[in-house]
Design a protein that fits this description.
The chain is of the alpha/beta class. The chain has one domain (5-272): Metallo-beta-lactamase, Chain A. Helix content is 18%, strand content 29%. Strands 6-5-4-3-2-1-14 form a 7-stranded mixed β-sheet. The structure holds zinc ion (2 copies).
């Protein structure tokens, strides 16, 4: 089915929300990305940006959505208890996660319970279903939306997604650390000829060495991956909390020069495929 295919950013940070004077332009909320593929709604991660997305959705009525979690670190799930559609009995949410040892439902039950949060998961009124899979599996969300997955190099694991629709592809690759030598072959395969690659660029080549082993990558590694795989646009994502607007503005212009069409993700940014 041909049709609308676009992506919109609601949260672009890693680690922890970081509101403040230095993050006003690019935003301080953690990972949450909306993807519209024809009449399907996909949500990539449930970071603090999900709260604002929920308010936006709620104003239009109930939803039917697939929530694809990269992994369960706090910065990728902390918006879920504040997601208004989760409390709407008319809404339907399929929650997907790869390689969760005890299953994603069990893990989220542990997160959403006293004393951490007063409302347990079973009191969220939306119709939830939980879909565990093995990273590397292909998820057929509908006859026209196919999602390929692969495992990432991150403490406790994480999963990358490639969403295919109407001959086009968006990839979401966070959180991951690049290998010491060469490129991660599984990521190169996943993002081959993709239109958009959203990539973990917590660090850059100068601040990465002090954080080796922390499970994150650089925009320079993202560029190399896109070049190798023939991917068209790199979207630098999962910014470190301390990365200022001024630094990201510099990076935005650097990306324009090095790979035109590439951008730094910011809250509110919409990219049409
Ligand atoms: Zn993260
Ligand atoms: Zn993580």
């Amino acid at each position: 089915m041909a049709g609308n295919f676009h992506v919109r950013f609601w949260g672009v940070r890693g680690s922890i929300p970081c509101p403040g004077h230095d993050t006003l332009h690019y935003g301080g909320n953690t990972s949450c990305v909306e993807v519209r593929a024809g009449d399907r709604l996909l949500i990539l991660d449930a970071g603090s940006g999900l709260q604002y997305f929920g308010q936006h959705l709620q104003a239009k009525g109930s939803i039917d959505a697939d929530l694809l979690l990269s992994h369960l670190h706090y910065d990728h799930i902390l918006g879920l208890p504040f997601f208004a559609p989760a409390y709407d009995p008319g809404s339907q949410l399929r929650v997907w996660a790869g390689n969760c040892n005890s299953g994603v439902e069990t893990a989220l039950r542990q997160f959403l319970q006293p004393p951490f949060f007063p409302v347990p998961l079973q009191h969220l009124k939306a119709r939830f279903s939980f879909r565990d899979f093995t990273s590397g599996d292909t998820l057929n969300l509908s006859s026209s939306v196919r999602v390929l997955t692969c495992a990432l190099n991150h403490p406790d694991g994480a999963t990358a997604y490639r969403i295919e629709f109407d001959g086009r592809a968006i990839c979401y690759v966070t959180d991951t650390e690049h290998p010491t030598q060469g490129l991660d072959a599984a990521i190169v395969d996943l993002i081959r000829d993709a239109d958009i690659v959203i990539y973990d660029a917590t660090y850059n080549n100068s601040d990465y060495p002090a954080h080796r082993g922390w499970g994150h990558s650089t925009w320079e590694a993202g560029l190399a991956l896109c070049e190798s795989a023939g991917a068209r646009r790199l979207v630098v994502f999962h910014h470190a909390p301390e990365r200022t607007d001024a630094e990201l503005q510099w990076l935005d212009s650097e990306l324009q020069r090095l790979k035109p069409g590439s951008v730094v993700a910011r809250e509110g940014l919409v990219l049409q495929l």
